[in-house]
Amino acid sequence: MDSSNKHISTLLFSSSLLLGGITAALLVFLIPFEGIQNEFNIELPIWLAWVFPSFRFWPLLSLTLLFMFAMSFKESLRLSPLFTRTAVNASFFGFGCAITFVLSSFLAIYWPVIQQTS
C-alpha cells in the first residue's frame, strides 16, 4: 500500500508541475494576444470563446493539485481509499487540462489566420 501511495504523490506532483509550467508559458503568449483580439474585435467560435476569459484562472488548477500533493503526506488521508481514488482522478484531469489548454490556446491564437487562408 505504501508503494501505491508514493506513486499517487508522484502522479499528483507531476500533474501539478506540468499544468503549472504550461499555464505559465501560455500566460506569456495569451495576454498580448488577448489585447490584439480585443483591438481588432475578432469573434471566436463558441468552442474557443472560453480561452481568453478563463486563462487567468488556470493557475488555480495547478495550485489545487499541488495542495492535494501536500495533503497526500498526511497519514490519515494517505490510507483513505476515497482520497486515493480522488487523487488519481484529479491528476489525470490535470494532465487532460494541460493538453486541452495547449491545443485550445494554439487554435484561439491562430484562428483568424486559419480563417483568412481558407
Q: How would you describe this protein?
A:
This protein is mainly alpha-helical and 118 residues long. Helices cover 82% and strands 0% of the residues. The protein has five helices and no strands. The chain has helices spanning 2-39, 51-54, 58-71, 75-78, 81-117. The mean pLDDT is 91.
What string, H for helix and E for strand, traces the elements in order?
Answer: HHHHH
* Regions with little confidence, pLDDT below 50 for 5+ residues: none
Give me the number of helical elements.
Answer: 5
Distance between the termini: 55 Å
Helix content: over 70%
Choose one word for the global shape: elongated
CA radius of gyration is 18 Å
Major sheet details: none
Class per helix and strand makeup? mainly alpha
Please tally the β strands and state the result: 0
Mean pLDDT: 91
Tell me the strand percentage band: under 5%
Quick summary:
With 118 residues, the chain is mostly helical. It has helices at 2-39, 51-54, 58-71, 75-78, 81-117.
List keywords for this structure.
118 residues; 82% helix; elongated; mainly alpha
Write the layout of secondary structure elements.
Blueprint: H1 2-39, H2 51-54, H3 58-71, H4 75-78, H5 81-117
Helix pairs in contact: 1-3, 1-5, 3-5
